[in-house]
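Entry for the shared binder. Reason: the reviewer on the internal report wants the predicted structure included alongside the sequence.
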Amino acid sequence: MRNTWYEYLMIVALAAAMLPGCNSVHNVDRAQTEELSREGSVVFVRPTEYKLLGTKSLSDYIEVVYEQGRRNQAGLLEVRVGLRDRGGQHFWDVQGRDFPISAKVTFYEEPVAGQAQRTPPVYETNWQRVMLVRGETTDYKVTCPVPEGAFYQVALSELK
């Protein structure tokens, strides 16, 4: 009787350990139009290559300190975003670490906030590597070379 109880307990423990792994599949369908209409000018993309102690989003570790979009002396739209690595967000993560991210800016002729159906972009940068140092603010700056670019959206993701 004692061996069967122990075997039963081991099976339950094994099943409980495997159960969270079954929920790690994510839906990869297209984003809903109401979700797109709520996106702002800075968008965090879910990391896929690594997790920082179980975080689900880069927004848990990165703080947008400032965001500016204005015309420079040449009349081109210049976007500046201040990104700060806040470090560990859990009580056991006292050290934290520096980590690189990827950033991309897409410029539009019409506003993007609140628009589910967007017009094609007039210019889009490549993914650029940005190194974030814990506790410091990094200035990310991009200038649109196309004069028609009047609105923008910055996408931040794991290193690509």
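Summary line for the report: Strands lie at 42-44, 62-71, 77-85, 99-108, 123-124, 128-132, 137-143, 151-158.
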